[in-house]
Design brief:
By secondary structure, this protein is α+β, with helices and mostly antiparallel strands. It folds into 2 domains: 5-34 and 262-308, no CATH class; 79-219, no CATH class. Helix content is 30%, strand content 24%. It has 8 helices and 14 strands. Strand 3 and strand 4 (86-90) form a beta hairpin. Helix 1 runs antiparallel to helix 8 (274-308). The longest helix is centred in the C-terminal third of the chain and has 35 residues, at 274-308. It starts with 5 loop residues before the first helix and ends with a helix. One 2-acetamido-2-deoxy-beta-D-glucopyranose is lined by residues 268-270. It comes from Fraxinus pennsylvanica. Its EC number is 2.7.11.1. One of its GO terms (cellular component) is membrane. It catalyses: L-threonyl-[protein] + ATP = O-phospho-L-threonyl-[protein] + ADP + H(+); L-seryl-[protein] + ATP = O-phospho-L-seryl-[protein] + ADP + H(+).
């Protein structure tokens, strides 16, 4: 098996010890990598992996937070609440019922809580979007609700009756569009409705039903950095101290735009429980060590052949 020459035998024994230190170092290096960092560094990573679920709205993540998603997991102002399986988002002046969220397009269908719950419980404020956070996502049409109006001279469609503080007039009615002229009524408010659903209705629509169908807004918060972060295996968070997005990586200190990939992880974004993670990773690193063994023994054999020839 070994060459006869005493001389070459000694050489090969000398060479055979060479690949060993490489393997040893690799094992130490891998051991270090698969040992999780201790402490709170992964706390935010963990909690920002929670999804917001409420009634029919499920799987919601950055830039939204709320419920089991702490404040540092979403953009300020995009807090979602859950009440009786109803998702609610609140702005400075109004609460909105969230009917649908499409996280791919960042489009939300919302409706004012106040008027869609109780027409007489409406706050007399116009519906004005926070232009930093939202823009209209599709064509819409304003409806103007008038409250505390004098009795109409002729019957009016979409009339309603509500007591209003400060006047004995209880008549109310809904007008399409935004009223530009002075109204005879005590108060009025403007509510957007989806133009599409408006067009689909035949005859005189129940305008309050239109209000309940909501309107579409697009969240303007830029999530491109978040997408890159998630594609590198990270989770999206928000640094409340510096007021900016941060990429959270498992077992890595925050601060980089994307997570550092390790050569034996074939970068998939879904990372289950830390336990599952560890076991799959150690089996992968085991395979890697084995591969290295094969490579180094091939290297040894090759080298030996060169020497013996
Ligand atoms: C949730 O249900 C409770 C009890 O039925 C009720 O008092 C409350 O107004 C409801 N909230 C919403 C947002 O519907
Ligand atoms: C709807 O009403 C709002 C608030 O009164 C106004 O700012 C907006 O321009 C109106 N939009 C349309 C399409 O009339
Ligand atoms: C093994 C595995 O989980 N593969 C997934 C990696 O991620 C892509 C999408 O990003 C999935 O399509 C694969 O199934």
């Amino acid at each position: 098996m070994f060459p006869n020459s005493h001389d070459t035998k000694m050489k090969s024994q000398f060479l055979s010890t060479k690949p060993l230190p490489i393997c040893f170092c690799t094992v130490l290096f891998l051991f270090h990598l698969i040992t999780p960092l201790s402490g709170d560094e992964n706390e935010q990573y963990k909690s920002c992996g929670n999804l917001f679920n409420c009634g029919k709205i499920t799987g919601i993540h950055y830039p939204f937070w709320g419920n089991n998603r702490p404040r540092e997991c979403g953009y300020p102002g995009l807090k979602l609440e859950c009440e009786n399986d109803t998702t609610i988002i609140e702005t400075e002046t109004l609460k909105y019922r969230v009917l649908d969220i499409n996280q791919d397009t960042q489009v939300l269908r919302i409706t004012r809580m106040d008027i869609s719950t109780d027409i007489c419980g409406a706050k007399f404020v116009n519906t004005i979007l926070d232009s930093e956070l939202f823009e209209y996502a599709s064509a819409y049409m304003n409806l103007t609700f008038h409250y505390g109006c004098p009795p109409p001279i002729f019957p009016f469609p979409n009339q309603f009756d509500c007591p209003v503080k400060g006047t004995t007039n209880r008549n109310g009615y809904v007008e399409m569009g935004t009223l530009l002229s002075e109204s005879m009524c005590h108060a009025s408010l403007v509510v957007p409705t989806s133009y599409n659903s408006f067009g689909n209705l035949k005859g005189l629509p129940n305008l309050l039903d239109l209000v309940r169908e909501g309107f579409e807004v697009r969240c303007k918060v830029d999530i491109s950095a978040c997408r890159s972060c998630e594609n590198s295996g990270g989770r999206c968070g928000y640094d409340l101290a510096s007021n900016q997005f941060i990429c959270l990586c498992q077992n890595q200190p925050p601060g980089s735009a994307v997570c550092k990939g390790s050569p034996f992880l074939t970068g998939n974004t879904t990372q289950p429980s830390p336990a599952g993670m560890g076991s799959s990773e150690s089996s992968r690193s085991g395979a890697f060590v084995l591969q290295l063994h094969i490579i180094s023994s091939q290297f040894y054999v090759g080298l030996n052949n060169v020497r013996t020839n």
